[in-house]
User: Which sequence fits this backbone?
């Protein structure tokens, strides 16, 4: 359906949407933020810490875009630097040590694009998260709540379960970037969005995510309560899985498999 | 690179010349190519005889097959998974035609060539990416071939040597391309956890999703002189930040300075260097 995909892109980017902080506040109790990657700095685009999910201690990591212009500037528009990914990995390793499940909320147009990011090894930081998450011996659940921009999103989404909100998008490249490379015309972003199959329903069809989360009652308190129940029940299932890491490997191994 | 000098052994078969796929004979009418660095016009046969480098040190890009002939022991390369090809999972507008055109023009059916090889008599699994196939972009077939190679190497307990050149993930395969980053990283991790060596040689250009996955996951990372290596494209960074990029930004030497590669390896030393490192990791206690 022409144009529909790009409408989703606009919704995913819209300023009125819940951000990472809203999900943390809505779902968890006693969230305590832990700062810094212990290497270089604390990245404000990624929030991480410990919290209770009902009565279960968990590690929560969220990419935060901010609600207004000032917050958005301070959060670098939700584009993490390498130290953000390294902080996330530090907290995930900590979760593994203390046998806590990890829950990630993802909302980014992509990893930060800048001189410092390259100087500090953006590519390596993402690569390390991909390989370390693959063998992280504790359940990992990722929820795409807005934009899922390429490697910068995947670096928190090598998980046992991946969910997307109904109006979230997940893509290897922004539709504008795709249009300008393919057709030298970034105004054809809408056509590119259709081609890229980046909506939650497309991702479900491709097997990239387990389920689409409806946004029908997003302004009601039940929205977060239902999400909390779903996370709890999945964590129970994943904790009982004796071959968790083999299943995680197979989950990703299946994409583009040929025998 | 004086510290590499001791590796340069002219008696090595690598240095004997004639390792090119089809050596071009020098003659009066042969075409010349201008070096983008020193702007001299050089006869093609001379470029080939120097492993596709100019006397000024400039490294031209080269095809995967040519690299294999330079790096692998003569007759040792045994290609694997050449039947694994992309099947246009998104039915992306124009992609099927593009694949057909590129296959015809490059004479390859995908952007990476994998196989068994020996380098300096040490057996290994080798992958070499192909710049002439959609600039080495990673779609499902590239991801599948590399994943299979690491799984095979883990099973056979062999080291992996990989030459990267890539513009990143292949956008025409959308999320399936993106997932190849996780898939290949998983296979590299299993190989690494089995105690096996993975050595990468980053060549010009290695960027995007390949940098952010298997290119940077090597135990030892070498880079060709002056190769562009990075995550985001330099032009995009310049446009986004409106800042002038520092001199040599994202070049191999810049990465060495910032601690992201182990050494710069000029092409003519590569084979003896890789051979020595392989032997050091897989050859036991005998020198």
Assistant:
């Amino acid at each position: 359906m022409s144009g529909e995909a790009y409408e989703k892109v606009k919704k995913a980017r819209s300023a009125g949407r819940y951000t990472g902080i809203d999900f943390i506040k809505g779902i968890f109790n006693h969230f305590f933020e832990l700062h810094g990657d212990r290497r270089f700095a604390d990245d404000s685009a990624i929030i991480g810490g410990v919290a209770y999910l009902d009565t279960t201690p968990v590690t929560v990591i969220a990419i935060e875009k901010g609600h207004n212009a000032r917050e958005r500037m301070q959060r670098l528009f939700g584009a993490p630097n390498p130290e953000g990914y390294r902080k996330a990995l530090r907290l995930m390793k900590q979760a593994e040590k203390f046998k806590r499940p990890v829950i990630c909320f993802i909302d980014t147009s992509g990893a930060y694009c800048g001189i410092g990011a390259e100087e500090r090894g953006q590519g390596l930081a993402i690569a390390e998260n991909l390989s370390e998450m693959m063998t992280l011996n504790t359940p990992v659940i990722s929820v795409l709540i807005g934009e899922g921009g390429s490697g910068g999103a995947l670096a928190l989404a090598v998980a046992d379960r991946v969910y997307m909100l109904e109006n979230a998008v997940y893509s290897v490249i922004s539709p504008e970037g795709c249009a300008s490379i393919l057709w030298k015309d970034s105004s054809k972003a809408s056509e590119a969005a259709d081609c890229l199959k980046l909506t939650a329903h497309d991702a479900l069809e491709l097997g990239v995510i387990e389920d689409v989360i409806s946004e029908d009652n997003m302004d009601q308190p039940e929205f977060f309560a239902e999400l909390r129940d779903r996370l709890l029940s999945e964590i129970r299932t994943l904790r009982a899985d004796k071959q968790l890491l083999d299943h995680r490997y197979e989950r990703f191994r299946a994409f583009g498999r040929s025998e | 690179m004086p510290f590499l000098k001791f590796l340069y052994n002219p008696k090595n078969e690598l240095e004997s010349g004639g390792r090119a796929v089809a050596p071009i004979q020098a003659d009066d009418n042969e075409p010349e190519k201008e070096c983008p660095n020193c702007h001299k016009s050089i006869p093609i046969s001379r470029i080939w005889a120097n492993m596709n480098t100019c006397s000024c040190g400039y490294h031209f890009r080269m095809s995967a097959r040519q690299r294999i002939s330079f790096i692998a022991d003569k007759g040792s390369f045994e290609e694997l998974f050449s039947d694994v090809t992309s099947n246009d999972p998104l039915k992306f507008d124009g992609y099927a035609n593009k694949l057909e055109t590129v296959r015809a023009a490059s004479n390859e059916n995908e952007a990476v060539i994998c196989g068994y090889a020996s380098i300096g008599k040490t057996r290994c699994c080798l992958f070499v990416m192909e710049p002439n196939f959609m600039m080495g972009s990673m779609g499902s077939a590239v991801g599948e071939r590399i994943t299979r190679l690491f799984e095979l190497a883990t099973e056979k307990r062999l080291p992996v040597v990989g030459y990267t050149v890539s513009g990143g993930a292949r956008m025409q395969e959308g999320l399936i391309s993106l997932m190849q980053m996780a898939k290949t990283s998983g296979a590299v991790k299993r190989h690494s956890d089995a105690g096996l060596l993975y050595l990468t040689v980053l060549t010009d250009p290695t960027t995007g999703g390949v940098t952010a996955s298997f290119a940077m996951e090597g135990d030892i990372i070498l880079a060709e002189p002056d190769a562009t290596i990075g995550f985001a494209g330099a032009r995009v960074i310049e446009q986004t930040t409106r800042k002038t990029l520092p001199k040599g930004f994202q070049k191999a030497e810049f990465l060495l300075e910032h601690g992201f590669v182990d050494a710069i390896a000029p092409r003519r030393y590569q084979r003896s260097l890789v051979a020595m490192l392989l032997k050091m990791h897989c050859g036991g206690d005998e020198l």
Summary: The CA atoms of residues 28 and 199 of chain A lie 27 Å apart. The two ends of chain A are 33 Å apart (CA to CA).
